[in-house]
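Notes from the 1:1 (GR / supervisor)

We went over the backlog. Supervisor wanted to see one worked example end to end before approving the batch request, so GR pasted a single chain during the call. The sequence is below; no edits were made to it. Supervisor asked that the structure be written out right there so they could see what the output format looks like.
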Amino acid sequence: MAHSRSTSLLNIWRKLCAAAAILAATVMAAAAGAQTATAIHSRDGGLLIERPARTWEFLCAVGKKSGVFGNESGRVEAWVYPLKVLRDFHVTVHHDGKEIPAETLVRTIEARPEETTLVLAGDTFSIRETFFVPVDEPGAVIKFEVETEQPLEIEVGFHRDLALEWPAAVGGTYANWNAGLNAFGFGEESKKFAAVIGSPTGREPQLEYEANYSSAHEESMKLGATAKGRETKIVAIAGSIHGQAEAEATYKKLITSYEALEKESAAYYAEYLKKTVTVEMPDAQLQAAYDWSRISLVQGLVANPTMGTGLVAGYRTSGESQRPGFAWFFGRDAFWSTLALNSEGDFANARTALAFVAQFQREDGKIPHEIAQGASFVNWFKDYPYGFASADATPLYIIAMNDYAQASGDAGFAKEKWASLQKAYAFLKSTYDASGLPQNFGIGHGWVEGGPLLPVKSEFYQSGLGAEAVRSLSNLAKLTGQTELSETLRKEAEKQLALVNQSFWMEEKKRFAFAIGKNDKQVDELNILATVPMWFGSTTDTVAAHMESNLRQLTNFDLQTDWGPRIISNQSVVYSGGGYHYGSVWPLFTGWASVAEYRHHQEFPAYLNLRANALLALDGSPGHVTEVLSGDYYQPLSTASPHQIWSAAMVISPVLRGMFGLERDAANKTLTFTPHTPANWTDYKIENIQVGKSVIAIGYHKVPGELTLEITRTGDECAFEFEPTLAGPAMEVRAEVNGRQTPVDFKFNPEHHHIQLKIALQEGKNVVRLRVKNDFGLAYDFRLPELGSKSSDLRVLAQTSDQYSSTLTVAGRGGASYDLTVWNADVIASLEGAELVKQADGTTKLRIHFETQKEEEYGRKEIAIHFRQSKVGGKVKLKE
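Structure output shown during the call:
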């Protein structure tokens, strides 16, 4: 995907928003010649992505009970959970004596939260083919809006499936034509499973058949001719596991009420965006990606008619099989996704997702890894090996429960699930080896499920989760009034974290080992999974220092691509760019890394990873983030699930937990705000942050020398902790809260400087004003390369600073130049290794040029920036 955010386009965006114009648009363009896409907001405030169609790209429309999956050629399959109704739905246009395959006419795609539209065009006609799935109906509608100069007729064809999702099966099925409904009816001998597909104008039905001398294997029907002008045709699909009557009732509702259902679904998603945490950012691409990711995440909720409502893992076509990507329920996927739901304030759905997985907890306390949508029709947990395959779902359950209770203040749910939590903890402890670390081998896999990184005894990832689970249970005990138990668990958590640090830390490499092997030796493999314990941080300075040291090694070009970090270094002897668990790039990992890097104040690599995930949401299946990409070239793996739920979560968590540093403590009525926003962000807003029974809105404004926060509180009392970053020369800060001077605490180390300000928010508006002498900053908008290309963007490997100077260690492609935006260039006295360039719009860029080595190779460089109060000398001259 091509990318660039020029100042002129940003100004256009602001002017259009201010004037409430029809469209506020940003064109995403990258390096010269790259592909383009346009992310826009429509007049009514709804989300819209419009771009030229890519016939290979995933297309979907989903609700809680149904889904349509296919590609942008218009060939799709339809599901009414847990039934697959049909596959290979396709369209033929009869026009001027020709039979034209519709996939040859597709020109543009328009994606909205509630539906996806393909725009088809011929010489004298156009057809808007819209795939719509209502939020709460067991069915779908495909709408054709025809405009033509000459007579035209649409014919639809498809293959009947009527099959239960893997691994269940229906048995023999049949199809017939119901003339009263103008629809095909699908059924089977037990009369339980049924489906209907038809159209009010359906005619000339063709049924599949099998004879001795010939056969046909698809159904088809025509939708009636349009003579001239405009006309709308529809096809409706409905299904049921309770018989034909229920399927027919849904079909009738769809064909008579689809317009009302469209409006209801659009309103549902618009309301969802309003009631969760809203953000207004100056980066229009990041803004669109955040909003779309909230939609993509909530679209993971599936209401299975036999098991209830939970979060599935993702969506992909099943083809001739009955496995639609990962559209069934996974424990660890749901738990990582609930952290994002908690961040955005969607506590109701987070609780629903947690409760769904908890109901399948094994008697010994182990939490399930996956639950197929067809699990009710087979002996899933006994006859199949997948139900409890992982070991990490169990500690993640405790962690996710604590995150929910901490953020929402719903201690009652923790009390309700206390017996379940105790069983999960007991199971976790039962997996400890003689040294006290949780085992993977023989218990269930950690993160890595297969490949050359196995077998191991315990992964650092898994052991880190185990320690965090104990700390989480300690807090849950505190929230539920069990003070003595909480203190006991707190001490145990400290010991467990120290044990993990001691067992995995490699002093000579200054990083953590990937795992402890079966021989009890450390397995050295630089890997991104190490960021998971770092996401949760540390209670000790020693462990925190180890984490920061390890994080610095993950920013290098051997591990980091433009589209996210590889699971292991491409210099490893076992690396493969297509290796699912030994070389590929997962947006999940990218989100882990971003939150961990923000938590440890490494904002450049954190923003690179946040922006990589965000741009993926706008450059693949519209509005969705894929499951996994190649480690060598910018493209999803051929087996990837294009609409992966936890990948969407890993846009939300890095924005809210990472870049904005928002942490709720509902029990103590406290909101912490530790922003690491780009230095050139002068204005943004965050609204609808719920902390217990209070609701907080934050408005941020910055000019050289002064930073202003307007914090509005409604509802109950709430404390506010503000911890902004300071640049190296900005050592003098004066703070005012509501007009009164207030003391601040300073936190300094060579890599990051913060101040800390604690205030009790009064009801209504609160104004915090910081006057900062010699404020300074650098910003860079990382970009994606063209599809199929290798990485080429800048890497900021390290940054250290004091009041006299700042040093950047960077890496870039040979022969390439990179421009960083400078905030308050007046404080710079001199430079080494770069030059300042004045732009026509008045901004200043720090230009870094890499000499030509081999063009495809990265080289390193150090940039020294000396500030005016240093002893280096006069002010640097700007290049025009």
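Supervisor's comment: The radius of gyration is 28 Å.
Batch request approved.
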